[in-house]
Amino acid sequence: MQPKQKVPIVLVALLFVLAAIAEMATGRSRVVIDGDAAERTRQAALARMDGALARNDVAAALRSWDEAYDLARRSRDWHALVEAGDAHIRIGAAANASGAAAPRAREIYLAALNRARAARSVEGVLRIAEGFAALGDREVTELALRIADSLASRGGDPAAALQVETARGRLLPRASGLAQITF
């Protein structure tokens, strides 16, 4: 591997580790509330956020998102963090600030990736790869697909391996339309 190729991979790995450390530091320091009640409250906050976005009230949407995100961090569930990342992107789009929203969404997706990997969820890792692909982050999309491939291989589920390959084809289109020639 060329030295120039190692730098982005090392940076992605470093970001992944930092996100994991941040998640452990912030996620475990809070009091955990009843899971079902927290989930209902989180879903209600997301619904309020979407309602605020429909009214073009970005400030109210951010307040509701903040509540939903706080509950997502405490839930220890990758689904909740993915929904928080997706919601943050929607707020950025509504405020014509998609570029400004992307770094925070990326952090949230990294934390979700850590949780999905820990839960050995091929489904979760693939869903998070979609989030990174939507952000245009090809390197982390590739990393997530490698993690999903590893989980699918360890799980021994041929359907999961097929899901990973299907996602790879959808999320990482070839840069060129030329056919590959193999010898």
Q: How would you describe this structure to a colleague?
A:
The protein is 80% helix and 0% strand. It is mainly alpha-helical. Helix 7 runs antiparallel to helix 8. The protein is built from eight helices and no strands. The longest helix has 25 residues, at 3-27. The protein has helices spanning 3-27, 35-54, 58-75, 78-94, 98-118, 122-135, 138-155, 158-171.
**Class derived from helix and strand content:** mainly alpha
What would the principal axes of the Cα set say about the shape? globular
Order of helices and strands: HHHHHHHH
Poorly predicted regions are 28-32, 175-183
Biggest β-sheet, characterized? none
Q: Determine the fraction of residues in helical runs and give it as a percent range.
A: over 70%
Termini separation? 23 Å
Let me know the average pLDDT.
84
| Number of extended strands | 0
Indicate the radius of gyration in whole angstroms.
18 Å
Give the helices and strands, then pairings.
Elements: H1 3-27, H2 35-54, H3 58-75, H4 78-94, H5 98-118, H6 122-135, H7 138-155, H8 158-171
Question: Which terms would index this structure?
Answer:
183 residues, mainly alpha, disordered C terminus
Task: Kindly summarize this structure in a few lines.
The protein has 183 residues and is an all-alpha fold.
